[in-house]
Design a protein that fits this description.
Elements lengths: L1 H17 L31 H7 L7 E7 L1 E3 L3 E4 L12 E2 L1 E4 L8 E6 L8 E6 L5 E4 L9 E4 L9 H4 L9 E2 L6 E2 L9 E6 L2 E6 L8 E3 L1
């Protein structure tokens, strides 16, 4: 009887061996535990969209740079600084702050005198080396938030790069070739100077005061 059972097992053994073997699934075993790294931002969107930011802030490689990757300092030695995460999902509307100079990447600026987004003699764009956004003065914004970094040319989505360069006078500031000490006077607000204001950049009527002077370099 025992011998007969052994024969029966041997008879079905080939069938058992022919059964498919388990394979490792091609999808994660715990998909809910899989996370993507996201960068939080302070303004609209809540999370940085790298593709949208890259489209909105394209580096102008055709531009003439009077200075590259330099600091812009207030008269008391504070550096203009931007935090790339302080704006919206496109890295627009980033407040421009003043802080002690540390050599951080957010302190670096390019001074552009000719390019896709500037068409005026005796003027400059101050462009963040980090984000490629432009220093922008908009008096329509709330007090304390009038000076921000914004897509060069003034289009939030950067679509102008697909067609032709676009210019906005809210980003053009008076500049003479070679000067390193200057007032930041936006072309869209005659008689207005940017000034330090509680750790940020604000604005006031130009009066020649030392607090309205900035140093490049």
């Amino acid at each position: 009887m025992h011998f007969s059972a052994s024969l029966s097992f041997l008879a079905v053994l080939p069938v058992i061996l022919a059964l498919p073997t388990a394979t490792t699934p091609s999808f994660p075993l715990h998909p809910r535990n899989a996370t993507q790294s996201k960068t939080a931002v302070d303004r609209a969107g809540g999370v940085l969209n790298p593709e949208a930011a890259a489209e909105a802030n394209v580096r102008d490689d055709t531009a003439t740079r009077a200075f590259s990757s330099v600091r812009i300092k207030s008269n008391d030695g504070q550096c203009l600084f931007i935090d790339p995460t302080a704006g919206d999902f496109r890295q627009n509307l980033i407040p421009v702050q003043l802080q002690g100079c540390s050599g951080a990447a957010g302190e670096k600026w390019d001074i552009i005198t000719n390019g896709k987004h500037i068409d005026k003699e005796g003027a400059m764009l101050a462009v963040s080396t980090v984000t490629q956004g432009c220093l922008n003065f908009d008096p329509r914004r709330a007090a304390g938030d009038t000076v921000v970094l914004f897509s060069c040319g003034g289009r939030a989505d950067g679509v102008h790069f697909v067609v032709e360069g676009q210019v906005t006078d809210s980003q053009e500031f008076a500049f003479k070739a070679g000067e390193t000490s200057l007032q930041l006077t936006p072309s869209n607000a005659e008689g207005t100077c940017l000034v330090p204001d509680g750790g940020k950049l604000g604005s006031a009527a130009c009066n020649g005061g030392s607090n309205q002077l900035f140093q490049i370099g």
